[in-house]
Design goal:
two-stranded antiparallel sheet, 199 residues, 7 strands, Rossmann fold, 7 helices, alpha/beta, 5-stranded parallel β-sheet
Length: 199
């Protein structure tokens, strides 16, 4: 049996009572199975830094020409990219804040979207390099319906993940959670409990 490795990314500022954390935690364990492993990247507990001028300069410098200071500036990003590269499945808990993703999740994306590392430019346009992976978005919100005209989170994440090569993106719809009946909530939990990655 193939041992699956799952990267779980949490972005909710809430440690307790978070729907995205609850569901993504269960989903990650189900996908890993008894033989697999889960790496947790909690962006609220340990925020990744915003990119700055030093980071940008280091990223634009060819790897073999970087100074020690530039290598240090990219060390955190390198670690985040390595987590993605090692994962078979990526489970992202996505609370919708003010119609979009939390700033902590955007900072993570800025750190892992790296030209020549997770994508490259070719004569036919950009090509994502993180291929053969599946991403699962556990999207939770108070009042924003999934893929509605005011949902700027889900379409963005589908696009940016596809840009780095992760085109198999699956969505667990936990939007407008507080407005759902218990039966509807239980149906979402059942979807999470029975989730399986395609062979």
């Amino acid at each position: 049996m193939t041992r699956r490795h799952v990267l779980r990314v949490d972005a909710s500022a809430r440690k307790t009572g978070s729907v995205s954390r609850e569901l993504s935690g269960v989903l990650a364990q189900r996908l890993a199975g008894e033989a697999g492993t889960v790496t947790v990247r909690d962006l609220a507990a340990a925020p990744v830094p915003q990119v700055d001028e030093v980071w940008v300069g280091a990223n634009f410098t060819p790897a073999e020409q970087r100074s020690e200071a530039q290598r240090q500036a990219l060390a955190g990003s390198d670690a985040l990219v390595a987590e993605l590269q090692a994962a078979d499945d990526i489970v992202i808990g996505v609370p919708i804040y003010n119609f979009a993703i939390p700033s902590a999740l955007k900072a993570w994306i800025d750190q892992i979207a790296r030209a020549r590392v997770t994508f490259r430019y070719t004569e036919n346009g950009p090509e994502g390099l993180l291929k053969g992976k599946t991403a699962w978005l556990v999207v939770a919100s108070g009042g924003t319906a999934l893929d509605s005209e005011i949902d700027f989170a889900t379409p963005y994440l589908r696009h940016v993940l596809g840009f780095v090569g992760i085109t198999d993106v699956r969505v667990i719809d936990a939007a407008r959670w507080g407005s759902r009946s218990k039966a509807e909530q239980d149906a979402v939990r059942e979807q999470v409990e029975t989730a399986r990655r395609a062979a």
